[in-house]
Amino acid sequence: MKVSALNPELVRNARIQLRRGRMLATAVICLAISLSSAAFYLYSRTGRPSIDDARGLFQVILTLQIVALLIGGGIYCLQSVHREKDLNTFDYQRITRMSPLELSVGKLLGAPALPYFAFFCLMPIAGWAAILAQVPVSIFLQIYVLLVLGSITYHALALLISLLLERGTSAGGILFFLAVVGMSSIDFSQDGSAFAAHELSPFYVFKLLSPMTQGITRGVSDVWGLRDQTDVFFGAQVSHSWALVVLYLTLTAWILLASVRNMKRDPSAYEAYSPVQGFTFVLYLNLLLLGFFRWMIPHVDYSPSATDPSSDLRPIRPTTAEGLFLSISLWFFVILGLALLRNRDRVRRRIREYGARAAGWWAAVWPAPYLFAGAVLAGLGIVGMIRLRLEAQPEWNPGLGLLEAGFFAFWIARDLLYLQWMNLRRARRPLVTGVLYLIVFYICASTLFVPFGWYGPKGAPHAAIFVPFHAFQLNSETWISATSAWIVALVLILLEALLFAWLQWRELQKLLTTAPQS
Amino acid sequence: MIHLENLSKEYEAASSKDWHVVAADRLNLDVPTGEIFGLVGPNGAGKTTTLKMICGLAVPTAGRVTVNGIDVERQPEEAQRHMGYLADFFSLYDELKVWEYFDYFANAYKLPPRAIPERVDEVIRAVGLESKREAAIGGLSRGMKQRMGIGRAIIHDPPLLVLDEPAAGLDPKARVELKDLLRRLHGAGKTIFITSHILSDLQEICTSIAIIEKGRLLRVGRLEEVMGEGKTLRRFRVRLAATGFALDAWLAERPGVSGVMNKEAGVRFDFDGNDAALAGLVRSLIEAGAPVCGVEELTETLEQLYSRISSGETT
């Protein structure tokens, strides 16, 4: 069977991207880079190029390949659907008999055809440099498997962004994508936090070379470079490279699922995941978070007396562990909540399908049930893991941990119920307005806490009513000193959530009375 | 072929001044097989949204669309096998060659791989682009590009073509070519559902029309029925070769004649009678000594009809 019959979209992309002129220009640029790099290496300062020089050359070429494939390919994927929508050609694809999977895969692998070509054009010089640098074949293969698989994962994300973007927002999409790449590539903490998010991107492949570069650079990062090649997943030692392969494959599958679900849909009916799929995905992410959680964190001695920066691993404090876990998990649930939000059009269609049931009280608490259930499960997970992994300490007990999880669950439910209510209001861009109001609320509330003196342990329960993040300071001491205040805070957050549910119910009733009949 | 049942579409348009839009308001319509059906309406009347709902590209807020008996919302892919769609502006891949474009869509519509080269050639011939087979689409004229769009719509040989403003932006020659192509396709048995702002073109080719405004259908029916709707009298104009005969006064005394108006181009009047009665009237006029050099029936154009029944308001 011809490739064009197997995946016409892939072939169309390749035909457009790989026109003779473009390929020639790319090949010439890559040749120029290769020749100049080789010349720089062969005629280095010392006269006789060393292995270190060869490693340097390999790293330079590798950087170019990563930039070309990961970022260049990502930008092509970001434009893949968005540009089709701008050109008005996307509807023609949607109406054909290509399956959503075919279309998605065709765009995922076809849109970045030119970056792939550039990547392969640089392979000869990369291979030559690797041989000169005496990079073991296994490491060389690991580097390129991770680079290609990792790039595909990021490309899948870019494709999804491209699909969901509204017209005229492509610059925002590119910035968001670059921010994701940056956050998953750069170690902002420098002292080794409980998570190594910066080791998720294909830029990690440089770490595979780091044991060899110990002789060149010294510092804290090198100590980490050696250690970071092994991960601990629920207590089991796993190779970071293998962990990345599994992560890349599973994340690509999850992200691609969202693209496939929506590729042929009416944009007004986009829904990244079904509620069950979204819920399962977030639980999966929480499981990863929990599994890879570092229960031993480095303690780096930066004191002036220390002659050489050194570090040792110490158990994380239970309150820190729970607060940190929930702070990260929060974002997963916020994204799930945003994905589950219903707009007026969707509610109208639900009313058409299910009648008054779609505007009842159960509908008015949407999307809280999924968020609440997920948040409680995540809370139970971290509390259970703290009990398993850390020694008992007087400042924390499971009851307090569960209370903290309760604050977490009510917090998410409250804010997403608010956003759901805003999204159903008759207004221009109601969700954007809702998010802006929420940001303004948090900024103002956080500012006002200063004159009220609510930033200390005493004011934490009061602050938690508005910004439940303060409940993450909960420990035995703060609990005993203000037990009733904490309980009142929790009840008030619940009441706030119910208020937004009632407001949503009112909007649903309005929509029910104005719904067109089939 | 197409059946719309209480079809409604409402949405919030972020960029529109009146942001709550009712693009389609309980539309009920039947388009029989073999028709060239024209949908007429001002910008924003809901034509494109209706077309997109017919094609399964937009989800209705309420109501149902069936194409060839297939529910478009429930079985979009099955329904889409029976239709070809052309959007309201030029949208092609400029970097591809003409044959590559058709090859892509032939594969996308899952035609048997062995039949594709032959089908691509057939369509290229059908749209008159044989000499441009290897040319890049970017270098084609607007008329050629529009014919390519129609070629894409017929690549899988669907019985229904849904065309949104296919003549927009075309020069007169390209419009004539397009009309010829549509007539040929109609002759080959295709049902064509078309919208256009160029009402004279629609009047020339359509067998039935519907007039839509603010998402509502104002008139639907066979072209001649819609054109004749609300009219009981035929209007004629008589021209004389020389002055001196009091034509308007003579006509005003004849039975069945009304609304006599003397204009520069001749005398216009409404006549309540058939062709035989008209022939008798003309014979009497000549016998009365009038130097008659022309008698013509004045028919209402689609533009005039549209202006008469439409307020021109948009949603």
Structural summary, described in words:
The complex is a heterodimer of chains A (518) and B (315). Chain A has 518 residues and is mainly α. Chain A is 69% helix and 4% strand. Chain A has helices at residues 3-6, 8-17, 20-42, 51-87, 90-94, 100-110, 113-121, 123-132, 137-164, 170-183, 205-209, 220-227, 240-262, 275-291, 318-340, 344-354, 361-364, 368-389, 398-424, 430-452, 460-466, 476-481, 483-514, and strands spanning 230-233, 236-239, 296-301, 310-315. In chain A, the strands form 2 sheets. Chain A has a two-stranded antiparallel ribbon. A two-stranded antiparallel sheet of chain A has the order 3-4. Chain A is flat, with a radius of gyration of 26 Å. In chain A, 42% of the residues are buried. Chain B is of the alpha/beta class. Chain B has helices spanning 47-54, 76-80, 98-108, 116-126, 142-154, 172-187, 199-205, 223-228, 247-252, 275-287, 302-309, and strands spanning 2-12, 20-31, 36-40, 62-67, 70-71, 83-86, 160-164, 191-195, 208-213, 216-222, 234-240, 257-263, 266-271, 292-298. Chain B is elongated. The two termini of chain B are 28 Å apart.
Name the features.
heterodimer; A: mainly alpha; two-stranded antiparallel sheet; two-stranded antiparallel ribbon; 4 strands; B: 315 residues; alpha/beta; 4-stranded antiparallel β-sheet; 14 strands
